[in-house]
């Protein structure tokens, strides 16, 4: 890592990046699970992000670009490489009814900005953890709405061609919890533009508050988790099926199917990635055996 640290020094001197050596990744993931990484780097601009990724690729150093690490399970083993976190790449701008947010902006920050600007259409995203980059990557959503309903364009960096491109939202291959960026991780989301509508600030604020209260009442927010574990299925409501199958409270180690919301697996204190993986496998096997339905994970595994 000495070569990487030497490369990063000018970025630190110009306040374009900061880093942590040998971080315990459990401290940084929403699941509170994960072994050590060699290096955790926080670029503070899109330009720094692209340069750092280029350098690591040139030197064939293992690396992964992540957002706020809210929808993933990090390996228990040491990650011998560089974890790049985009959470310090901030910035929101407004041009009429169009808002542009950089990849590190959280959905909560964007929603509050749009509320204060009396713009509506984003309320569904309030309470979804994570950042713009990750939300666009996986086409995050709640209820019947998702990011694809708002995104008009995305600017991304192609790490193979080493060029920055802007693509219209309709050309992002958005699908349920997927996009062209999920299908091709060599394309890194830098920023996205959203189209909103005029609204009443007080009405918008009330809607956002109600949504957050509903989440708090129905989801196990008091425990570390990675959100919904499984994707929707055309044949059923997955969380309801898991509940009706009697799997609430099923556990492996300190990983448990939430008793509050069967779609969540929670970390009761000292769960490991292996615990979570074993519990996911057990839930899938039981559902397959009893209902002939194959569940598919929504969370990502980093190893």
Characterise the protein shown here.
With 303 residues, the chain is an alpha+beta fold. The chain has 3 domains: 2-85, Uridine Diphospho-n-acetylenolpyruvylglucosamine Reductase, domain 2 (2-Layer Sandwich), CATH 3.30.43; 92-203, Uridine Diphospho-n-acetylenolpyruvylglucosamine Reductase, domain 3, CATH 3.30.465.10; 220-302, UDP-N-acetylenolpyruvoylglucosamine reductase, C-terminal domain (Uridine Diphospho-n-acetylenolpyruvylglucosamine Reductase, domain 1). 30% of the residues lie in helices and 27% in strands. It has 8 helices and 19 strands. It has helices at residues 2-13, 46-58, 107-116, 132-138, 180-183, 201-218, 238-244, 273-291; strands at 17-21, 37-43, 63-66, 72-74, 79-85, 92-95, 98-102, 119-120, 141-142, 145-146, 151-158, 163-168, 187-195, 197-198, 225-228, 251-252, 255-257, 264-267, 300-302. The strands form 6 sheets. It has a 5-stranded antiparallel sheet, covered by helices on one side. Strands 1-2-5-3 form a 4-stranded mixed sheet. A hairpin with a 4-residue loop joins β11 (151-158) and β12 (163-168). The longest helix has 19 residues, at 273-291. The two termini are 18 Å apart. The model has no long low-confidence stretch (mean pLDDT 96).
Short characterization:
With 303 residues, the protein is α+β, with helices and mostly antiparallel strands. Helix content is 30%, strand content 27%.
């Amino acid at each position: 890592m000495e070569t990487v640290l030497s490369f990063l020094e000018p970025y630190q001197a110009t306040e374009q990046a900061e880093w942590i050596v040998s971080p315990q990744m459990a401290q940084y993931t929403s699941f509170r699970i994960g072994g050590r990484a060699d290096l955790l780097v926080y670029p503070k601009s899109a330009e720094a992000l692209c340069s750092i990724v280029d350098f690591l690729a040139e030197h064939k150093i293992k690396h992964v670009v992540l957002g706020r690490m809210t929808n993933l399970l990090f390996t228990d083993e040491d990650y011998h490489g560089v974890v790049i976190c985009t959470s310090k790449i901030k910035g929101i701008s407004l041009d009429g009814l169009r808002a542009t947010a950089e990849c590190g902006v959280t959905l909560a920050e964007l929603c509050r900005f749009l509320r204060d600007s009396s713009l509506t259409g984003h309320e569904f995203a309030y309470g979804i953890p994570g950042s713009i980059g990750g939300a666009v990557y996986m086409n995050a959503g709640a209820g019947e709405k998702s990011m694809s309903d708002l995104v008009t364009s995305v600017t991304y960096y192609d790490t193979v061609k080493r060029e920055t491109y802007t693509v219209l939202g309709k050309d992002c291959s958005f699908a349920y919890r997927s996009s062209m960026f999920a299908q091709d991780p060599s394309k890194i989301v830098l920023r996205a533009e959203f189209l909103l509508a005029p609204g009443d600030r007080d009405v918008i604020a009330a809607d956002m508050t109600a949504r957050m209260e509903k989440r708090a009442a129905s989801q196990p927010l008091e425990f570390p988790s990675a959100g919904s574990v499984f994707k929707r299925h055309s044949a059923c409501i997955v969380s309801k099926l898991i509940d009706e199958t009697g799997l609430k409270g099923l556990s492996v180690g300190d990983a448990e199917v939430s008793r509050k919301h069967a779609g969540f697996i929670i970390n009761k204190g000292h769960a490991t990635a292996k615990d979570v993986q074993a519990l996911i496998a057990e839930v899938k096997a039981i559902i397959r055996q009893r209902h002939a339905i194959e569940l598919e994970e929504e969370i990502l595994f980093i190893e």
